[in-house]
Design goal:
Length: 241
Protein backbone atom coordinates (compact mmCIF):
# COMPACT_ATOMS: atom_id res chain seq x y z
CA UNK A 1 0.00 0.00 0.00
CA UNK A 2 1.02 3.67 -0.10
CA UNK A 3 2.60 3.41 3.35
CA UNK A 4 4.75 0.42 2.39
CA UNK A 5 8.55 0.53 2.26
CA UNK A 6 8.48 1.94 -1.26
CA UNK A 7 6.34 4.97 -0.43
CA UNK A 8 7.86 8.21 -1.75
CA UNK A 9 6.96 9.87 1.52
CA UNK A 10 9.16 7.42 3.42
CA UNK A 11 12.38 8.83 4.77
CA UNK A 12 15.34 7.77 2.60
CA UNK A 13 17.55 5.11 4.12
CA UNK A 14 21.02 6.14 5.38
CA UNK A 15 22.71 4.56 2.32
CA UNK A 16 20.87 6.89 -0.09
CA UNK A 17 23.12 9.45 -1.81
CA UNK A 18 21.42 12.39 -3.57
CA UNK A 19 22.29 12.80 -7.25
CA UNK A 20 21.41 15.24 -10.01
CA UNK A 21 19.63 12.33 -11.73
CA UNK A 22 17.09 12.41 -8.87
CA UNK A 23 15.63 15.45 -10.66
CA UNK A 24 15.82 14.03 -14.20
CA UNK A 25 12.36 12.74 -15.17
CA UNK A 26 13.91 10.55 -17.91
CA UNK A 27 16.23 8.65 -15.52
CA UNK A 28 14.87 5.11 -15.09
CA UNK A 29 17.97 2.85 -15.11
CA UNK A 30 19.24 1.66 -11.72
CA UNK A 31 22.47 -0.19 -10.86
CA UNK A 32 22.24 -2.61 -7.90
CA UNK A 33 25.43 -4.21 -6.60
CA UNK A 34 26.83 -6.18 -3.70
CA UNK A 35 24.87 -9.41 -4.12
CA UNK A 36 26.30 -12.70 -2.97
CA UNK A 37 27.42 -14.36 -6.25
CA UNK A 38 24.70 -17.02 -6.02
CA UNK A 39 22.01 -14.34 -5.78
CA UNK A 40 22.36 -12.48 -9.08
CA UNK A 41 19.76 -14.42 -11.00
CA UNK A 42 16.78 -12.57 -12.41
CA UNK A 43 14.21 -14.09 -9.99
CA UNK A 44 16.28 -12.92 -6.99
CA UNK A 45 16.50 -9.40 -8.40
CA UNK A 46 12.76 -9.32 -9.07
CA UNK A 47 12.14 -10.36 -5.45
CA UNK A 48 13.82 -7.25 -4.10
CA UNK A 49 12.63 -4.69 -6.70
CA UNK A 50 9.00 -5.73 -7.22
CA UNK A 51 7.73 -3.52 -4.37
CA UNK A 52 9.00 -0.33 -5.95
CA UNK A 53 6.91 -0.31 -9.10
CA UNK A 54 6.69 -1.82 -12.58
CA UNK A 55 9.93 -2.41 -14.48
CA UNK A 56 10.74 -3.07 -18.12
CA UNK A 57 14.08 -4.86 -18.13
CA UNK A 58 16.42 -6.74 -15.78
CA UNK A 59 19.99 -7.23 -16.99
CA UNK A 60 22.31 -9.55 -15.05
CA UNK A 61 25.73 -10.95 -15.95
CA UNK A 62 26.22 -14.52 -14.74
CA UNK A 63 28.62 -14.65 -11.79
CA UNK A 64 28.84 -10.85 -11.48
CA UNK A 65 27.64 -9.27 -8.21
CA UNK A 66 25.51 -6.57 -9.86
CA UNK A 67 22.43 -6.03 -11.99
CA UNK A 68 20.76 -3.27 -13.98
CA UNK A 69 17.05 -2.61 -13.72
CA UNK A 70 15.11 -0.41 -16.11
CA UNK A 71 11.96 0.80 -14.36
CA UNK A 72 8.86 1.91 -16.26
CA UNK A 73 8.87 5.31 -14.56
CA UNK A 74 11.28 7.71 -12.89
CA UNK A 75 9.15 7.61 -9.71
CA UNK A 76 9.54 3.84 -9.34
CA UNK A 77 13.30 4.06 -9.93
CA UNK A 78 13.52 6.93 -7.43
CA UNK A 79 11.73 4.85 -4.79
CA UNK A 80 14.29 2.06 -5.27
CA UNK A 81 17.17 4.57 -5.08
CA UNK A 82 15.82 6.07 -1.85
CA UNK A 83 14.64 2.94 -0.05
CA UNK A 84 16.68 -0.04 -1.29
CA UNK A 85 20.32 0.74 -0.30
CA UNK A 86 21.44 -1.40 2.61
CA UNK A 87 18.72 -4.02 2.12
CA UNK A 88 20.19 -7.35 3.20
CA UNK A 89 20.33 -10.16 0.65
CA UNK A 90 21.58 -13.31 2.40
CA UNK A 91 23.00 -11.06 5.09
CA UNK A 92 24.89 -8.82 2.62
CA UNK A 93 23.76 -5.16 2.22
CA UNK A 94 23.22 -4.12 -1.42
CA UNK A 95 24.16 -0.73 -2.82
CA UNK A 96 21.85 1.06 -5.26
CA UNK A 97 22.75 3.97 -7.56
CA UNK A 98 21.62 5.48 -10.84
CA UNK A 99 23.18 3.70 -13.82
CA UNK A 100 25.58 5.86 -15.83
CA UNK A 101 23.58 5.37 -19.02
CA UNK A 102 20.03 6.69 -19.08
CA UNK A 103 17.61 6.80 -22.02
CA UNK A 104 17.62 9.86 -24.25
CA UNK A 105 14.74 12.27 -23.69
CA UNK A 106 11.84 11.80 -26.12
CA UNK A 107 12.71 13.05 -29.60
CA UNK A 108 10.40 16.05 -29.41
CA UNK A 109 12.51 17.34 -26.49
CA UNK A 110 15.83 16.83 -28.29
CA UNK A 111 16.50 20.15 -29.95
CA UNK A 112 19.52 20.15 -32.22
CA UNK A 113 22.54 21.59 -30.48
CA UNK A 114 24.72 23.28 -33.08
CA UNK A 115 28.02 21.46 -32.84
CA UNK A 116 29.99 24.61 -33.63
CA UNK A 117 29.69 27.75 -35.73
CA UNK A 118 27.91 27.11 -39.00
CA UNK A 119 29.16 27.97 -42.47
CA UNK A 120 26.87 28.58 -45.45
CA UNK A 121 27.83 26.61 -48.56
CA UNK A 122 26.37 25.16 -51.72
CA UNK A 123 25.18 21.56 -51.82
CA UNK A 124 28.00 20.68 -54.21
CA UNK A 125 30.59 22.06 -51.80
CA UNK A 126 28.99 20.28 -48.82
CA UNK A 127 29.30 16.94 -50.63
CA UNK A 128 33.10 17.30 -50.62
CA UNK A 129 33.42 19.05 -47.25
CA UNK A 130 34.93 16.79 -44.57
CA UNK A 131 32.87 18.25 -41.68
CA UNK A 132 29.50 18.12 -43.47
CA UNK A 133 27.03 16.18 -41.29
CA UNK A 134 23.71 18.01 -41.84
CA UNK A 135 21.16 16.66 -44.31
CA UNK A 136 17.93 18.26 -45.50
CA UNK A 137 15.01 15.80 -45.81
CA UNK A 138 11.82 16.78 -47.62
CA UNK A 139 8.62 15.09 -48.87
CA UNK A 140 8.33 13.28 -45.54
CA UNK A 141 5.52 10.71 -45.41
CA UNK A 142 3.02 12.20 -42.90
CA UNK A 143 2.06 8.78 -41.52
CA UNK A 144 5.57 8.04 -40.24
CA UNK A 145 6.19 8.94 -36.59
CA UNK A 146 9.42 10.59 -35.43
CA UNK A 147 10.77 7.34 -33.92
CA UNK A 148 10.02 5.52 -37.21
CA UNK A 149 11.78 8.21 -39.23
CA UNK A 150 14.72 8.12 -36.86
CA UNK A 151 14.98 4.32 -37.13
CA UNK A 152 14.86 4.61 -40.93
CA UNK A 153 17.59 7.25 -41.15
CA UNK A 154 19.75 5.54 -38.51
CA UNK A 155 20.24 2.73 -41.01
CA UNK A 156 22.90 5.11 -42.35
CA UNK A 157 24.53 5.62 -38.94
CA UNK A 158 24.00 7.13 -35.47
CA UNK A 159 22.10 10.44 -35.45
CA UNK A 160 23.20 13.37 -33.26
CA UNK A 161 19.97 15.37 -33.60
CA UNK A 162 16.77 15.63 -35.63
CA UNK A 163 14.73 18.75 -36.27
CA UNK A 164 11.64 17.57 -38.15
CA UNK A 165 8.38 19.39 -38.81
CA UNK A 166 5.51 17.14 -39.82
CA UNK A 167 3.35 20.16 -40.61
CA UNK A 168 5.88 21.47 -43.11
CA UNK A 169 6.84 17.99 -44.30
CA UNK A 170 10.59 18.57 -44.06
CA UNK A 171 13.41 18.80 -41.58
CA UNK A 172 17.10 18.36 -40.88
CA UNK A 173 19.12 15.37 -39.70
CA UNK A 174 22.51 15.86 -38.06
CA UNK A 175 24.85 12.87 -38.02
CA UNK A 176 27.89 12.58 -35.77
CA UNK A 177 30.14 11.66 -38.70
CA UNK A 178 30.54 12.82 -42.28
CA UNK A 179 30.78 9.23 -43.54
CA UNK A 180 27.32 8.41 -42.14
CA UNK A 181 25.83 11.52 -43.76
CA UNK A 182 27.38 10.37 -47.05
CA UNK A 183 25.82 6.92 -46.57
CA UNK A 184 22.43 8.57 -46.02
CA UNK A 185 22.83 10.56 -49.24
CA UNK A 186 23.70 7.41 -51.20
CA UNK A 187 20.91 5.37 -49.60
CA UNK A 188 18.10 7.88 -50.07
CA UNK A 189 19.20 10.29 -52.80
CA UNK A 190 17.31 8.33 -55.43
CA UNK A 191 14.22 8.78 -53.26
CA UNK A 192 13.83 5.03 -52.90
CA UNK A 193 10.36 3.57 -52.48
CA UNK A 194 9.33 6.44 -50.25
CA UNK A 195 9.98 9.30 -52.64
CA UNK A 196 11.96 11.24 -50.02
CA UNK A 197 13.80 14.37 -51.06
CA UNK A 198 17.31 14.23 -49.56
CA UNK A 199 20.08 16.77 -50.06
CA UNK A 200 23.04 18.31 -48.26
CA UNK A 201 21.97 21.17 -45.98
CA UNK A 202 23.35 24.58 -46.90
CA UNK A 203 24.59 25.15 -43.34
CA UNK A 204 27.38 22.90 -42.12
CA UNK A 205 29.54 23.06 -38.98
CA UNK A 206 33.01 24.61 -39.05
CA UNK A 207 34.47 21.54 -37.35
CA UNK A 208 33.50 18.14 -35.99
CA UNK A 209 31.57 17.88 -32.73
CA UNK A 210 33.81 17.91 -29.67
CA UNK A 211 32.14 15.16 -27.70
CA UNK A 212 31.31 12.32 -30.06
CA UNK A 213 30.20 9.29 -28.00
CA UNK A 214 32.49 6.29 -28.05
CA UNK A 215 31.20 2.94 -29.32
CA UNK A 216 28.99 4.62 -31.92
CA UNK A 217 28.78 1.40 -33.89
CA UNK A 218 27.73 -0.84 -30.99
CA UNK A 219 24.02 -1.54 -30.47
CA UNK A 220 22.82 0.52 -27.52
CA UNK A 221 20.52 -1.90 -25.78
CA UNK A 222 20.72 -5.40 -24.44
CA UNK A 223 18.13 -7.88 -25.61
CA UNK A 224 14.82 -7.47 -23.80
CA UNK A 225 14.43 -9.45 -20.63
CA UNK A 226 12.19 -12.41 -21.38
CA UNK A 227 10.62 -13.94 -18.26
CA UNK A 228 10.31 -17.27 -20.04
CA UNK A 229 14.00 -17.58 -20.88
CA UNK A 230 16.07 -20.18 -19.09
CA UNK A 231 18.87 -19.09 -16.82
CA UNK A 232 17.54 -15.57 -16.54
CA UNK A 233 20.70 -13.83 -17.77
CA UNK A 234 20.55 -11.15 -20.43
CA UNK A 235 23.32 -11.33 -23.04
CA UNK A 236 26.45 -9.30 -22.49
CA UNK A 237 26.14 -5.68 -23.49
CA UNK A 238 23.35 -3.49 -22.24
CA UNK A 239 23.74 -0.28 -20.30
CA UNK A 240 26.99 0.14 -18.36
CA UNK A 241 26.99 1.03 -14.68
Amino acid sequence: GPMGPGAMGGRPVPGYKPSKLDEDPHAVNVHISGFPPDRTRVPHIIDIIADFGPFKDVDVRPGKPFAFVEFMSHDSAMRAIRMLPGTLVNGVPVSVTWARNQPDPPLELQKPTPSSDMIEMTEAKAADYEHAVNIFVGSLPPMMSLPELRALFEEAGPIASMDISHERGYGFIEFYRHKDAQTMMQKFSAGGDMGLLVKWAKKQPKEDRENIPENLDKPLRSARFNPGSRGGGAPRGGFGG
